[in-house]
Amino acid sequence: MKNESLTIKSNGTHEIEIKKSRFLCNMARIDSEDQAKGIIEQVTKENPKANHNCYAYMLGDDDHIQRESDNGEPSGTAGVPILEVLKMNELHNVLAVVTRYFGGIKLGAGGLIRAYSNATSTTVDSLGIVKLVNKQKITLTIDYNQFDKLKYFLESQSIPIEETTYTAKIQVVIAVSDEDFDSLITQITNLLSDQFSYQKGGYQIFEVPYSREKRQNESGN
Prior knowledge:
- It is a single chain.
- This protein folds into two domains: 4-127, Ribosomal Protein S5, domain 2; 135-205, Alpha-Beta Plaits.
- The radius of gyration is 23 Å and the shape is elongated.
- Strands 1, 7, 8, 9 and 10 form a five-stranded antiparallel sheet that branches. A five-stranded antiparallel sheet has the order 2-3-6-4-5, with helices on both faces.
- It has helices spanning 33-46, 79-88, 108-127, 147-156, 178-191, 212-219; strands at 4-8, 12-18, 21-29, 52-59, 65-69, 94-101, 129-142, 163-166, 170-176, 197-210.
- By secondary structure, it is an alpha+beta fold.
């Protein structure tokens, strides 16, 4: 995966009603097209009386796999609006299936586009977004009298301590992205007057809370 990407916080379902039609959106993280197809099939089985089960998903680090289906709705009024919401929120490896129970009132092409878009976007808002960050674990070996100073510094930088081991010295495990590594080590070197050692470990995916407002601020919009 990329060093950083966005996805939904958790799988889930959200429902809206528009002019007596029910729009039920199931959203899930996916790793493959087979998994996506399996979820679409399951949602369809669970809603045998539904009029439509429209969907869209994006897969791959560069979103090179993009699929959408109107499932019987007028062309371009369901699958594409769902897909556009996923794109707008930059959600990677995510599937959205919007099930419609027709309420007897026709919405028209524009109304359908808005309905499927709203069903998807409100589900994203309901579930929340997280940033997946690929970080490398670093083991810092320090003296006991340095621990409080290091702990305070890490807290000030919002860097959680993943593990602490107490032996002849203290070993503190943290995780840091590649782009932040050099700067962090420099700061810790200055903080501890170069009286410590460190060892790089393996990489692990961490989930960090993320918001649309934060994304807008980062982009300058």
